[in-house]
Design a protein that fits this description.
This protein is mostly helical. The chain contains 8 helices and no strands.
Amino acid sequence: MITNYYTLLNIDQSADLETIKKAFRKEIAIYHPDNNASPEAREKFEQLVEAFDILSNEDKRREYDQMLKHQATNKPVVIEQKQQYEDWQKEAKKKSKTYEGIGLEELLLIDIFVLNGDFLDGLFSGADDILDGIGDIFDFF
């Protein structure tokens, strides 16, 4: 069964990226380990990271919406799509472990590094990526 991430984030399926970010920040503040140490919170935190990871990426979101549509009409999800969804879940679980180690304040501010839906990937890929991005920010001013 595919989790409905729109329901999880309390947003409409037509929500834009800014709405998704806002909902993610609101929910993550409740369930981040800095604020909530319960075992249920850890699971919810992982689901929220998973939701954001999929819904903030245009390609993943398009595929995900198709899977949701199939589920709603009781059509079977194609095996390849099911495998892809499970791969996304595994990837998000790894990311959530990383995000647990980031303080809540830093995590809430980090979305300036969202590029092409790849939340934090550029941040952890190496110092060169960070320095390049900082240079671009200063060029703006």
